[in-house]
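Why do we bother with holo predictions? Because pocket geometry can differ from the apo form. Keep that in mind while you read this record for zinc ion.
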Amino acid sequence: MTDEPMAPPVLPNYDEGTLPDLATSLLAALGARGEANPLGLPRARRICLLVVDGLGWELLRDHPAAAPFLSELALTARPLTAGFPATTVTSLTSLGTGRPPGQHGLLGYQVRVPGREVLLNGLRWNADVDPVVWQPKPTVYERAATAGIDAFRVAGAKLEKTGLSKAAMRGNSYRPADSLGGLVAQAAGALRESSRALVSVYHGQLDSTGHAFGCRSDAWRYELGHVDKLAEQLAGSLPEATTMYVTADHGMVDVLPDDRIDADTVPGMRDGVALLGGEPRARHVYTAAGAAHDVLAAWREILSERAWVLSREEAIAAGWFGPVDPALADRIGDVVAAPVGGLAVVASSAEPLETALIGMHGSLTAADQFVPLLMHASA
Ligand SMILES: [Zn+2]
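The structure, written out:
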């Protein structure tokens, strides 16, 4: 413990340079009316957006030799902030709706279903939660179609009909591909058959490699090499008047054994807690009736300078989620905790699989928040 004040969090700069801003800017660049273009993206007839899960800006900058193609694009690029929490469920919905988390309502990996006292896992989904009711606002694919733009999504076959896909990305023509070459061929085919098109390509294995082996591992670096080749092949396959962008949903940090605070074993962390949501680097703590004040005090005391710990009202006021739709506010934890540095609040009993991961993400550090926005225009 030091007397130094805690470093401030890296707050997402909503409306200026976050993932939802990228989504609306892409639509505007394709000529869709009424879509904001805060990133000032140039007009294009066709756009291919490659989303590489877990490709943080800092990680890319630290691996120029493993990713020569992407690293060259990064020389003239700038990062975006992902949004909070910096996690796939939230960020893919920000990209899929062009709205910040506080407006689209997919507020983390696990959030409480209001009134039900159960958690909704956004990746696995719950059969009794209708994804369209959970996120009813139009997606960017639906808005593209309204504007006469053909909208495609290229990703693994098993992702087509997930709850997250229905909530966040419905309305596209889905082109399944379960290999790197398949992703390139499907994207190139979709681009070639349209005169105005938005083609979104998703690659998920860099994130899963980082979770399993760490993002500072040989495995992650080797996988990055495949991602680099994927991007290079996509760039080489673009028809004329087409721009490719590369971004990510979040970065990642490796959490060392000593940097894990176990909510299921540290005394006091479960007192007054009805449901522990979120994930190790972005916790939503849902408290029992009347316990919010005590839980906030206990988590602040226990975590001290190891996490930014705010009440729901404080997190909303601080702008962590962007402007929050009041109807969605009770999806946010009564207490919200974002670990600093490379720390994590794990739950060894409730979440054995997640607790076993090495690479993690979600918080408000530069490593979690900054993602690349790379651009390559066809000849
Ligand atoms: Zn992940």
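The chain has a mean pLDDT of 97.
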